[in-house]
Amino acid sequence: MKIDLSGKVALVTGATGELGRVIARSLAECGADVALHYHSNESKAAELKSAIEAMGRRAVAVKADITKQGSVEEMKQAVEAGLGQADIVVANAVVQYQWTSVLEQPAEDYASQFESCVMQSVYLAKSFIPAMIEKKGGRFIGINTECSMQNFPTQSAYVAGKRGMDGVYRVLAKEVGEHQITVNQVAPGWTISERDRANGTERSEGYEQSVPLKRRGTDQEIANAVVFLASDLASFITGAYIPVSGGNVMPSI
C-alpha cells in the first residue's frame, strides 16, 4: 500500500513558507502536479518550482492575495491554465503578526487573522469546489493549529482566526460530502522547520516536557498527514480536526 497522487493537481497556498514548501514537495513526491501560491517571495517560489519540475512533475508559481476574493479567483484561472482543475487544495497561508495580550493586541491583527484563516478558506471554496463537484470528488485541506485547543495567553488573535476557520470547515464538510469531496484540517504542534535546523533551535525542553512523545514534531511529519488526507487512503475521512502534535492536544469525545 502506498500513496499515489499521479494525475492529480494540487494547490498549496503559502507554498514558500517553512511548512508550505515541505507540503508542496511531499505532494509532488507522491506524483501530484503542484500549483505554488506565494504572496511576495517570488524567488523562493521559482526555486521550489524548479525543484518540483526536477522530480518530473509539473509546477506553476502563482502570486495572489488570499484575503481578496478577486485575487483568489484569478489564481484559480492561472492554476487551470497552467495545470488544469485542482483536485487537492491545501489552505496553508496565514498572515504573520506579533503576539501580545488581548488588551494590547491591535484590532487590525484580529482582522488579519479572520481574513487569512476564515475568508481565505471561504474564497478558496467558492473558487475551487465547484469544479470538484462537477468531477464528483476532491480534497479540501486546511492547516489549523494546536493553539485552537490551548487558548494560552497572547494567542487570542491567532486562536480566534483558526477557531473561526474550524467552523467553516465543519459546515463545508457537511455541505459538499454528497459530492465525495472531503474537507479536513491538520493541526500542527510547534514544528521543527528548515529555519530551526539552520539555526540550531530544534530543541525546547520546556515545550517538549508537555508533549507525551517528549519532542517537537517535524515539518515532514505535518506534510505526511496532509498527503494522507489528500490520498484515496483517506476517502472516508471528512470533517476532521487532526492534531499532529505528539499528543500535546487531544480532542475529546
TrEMBL record:
Q: Which GO terms describe its biological process?
A: bile acid metabolic process
This chain belongs to the protein called: SDR family oxidoreductase
Read off the Pfam families from this record.
adh_short_C2 (PF13561)
| Protein family per UniProt | Belongs to the short-chain dehydrogenases/reductases (SDR) family.
The protein's UniProt keywords, in alphabetical order, are: Oxidoreductase
InterPro entries registered for this protein in UniProt: NAD(P)-bd_dom_sf (IPR036291), SDR_fam (IPR002347)
What's the source species for this entry? Cohnella thailandensis
Gene Ontology molecular function: oxidoreductase activity
